[in-house]
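Format is chain and fold; as here:
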Amino acid sequence: MSSGYSNRAWQCPFFRWDERRKVHCEGGSAISMPDAASFRAYISRHCSSHQGWHSCSIAVQLSSYWDRVDRAVDNQRDTNTQGQKNPRSR
């Protein structure tokens, strides 16, 4: 949780910074709103909501991306360790 321009407690792990009527997310994504009321409504529903950030389309896609990266790393680790003896088991 961090505080930014809006002085909010941001819940979304992909939040990077905010400015007037605009939220910047990981990977260069940003959401701009036409007025302060719509900005407050959006971030209250998604970015600063403990449960709501999961329904943000940017957060959904970034979560999916990091899941794929984690699986690829795990698969690479498994591939590298196949056939090698465990040095701890003697």
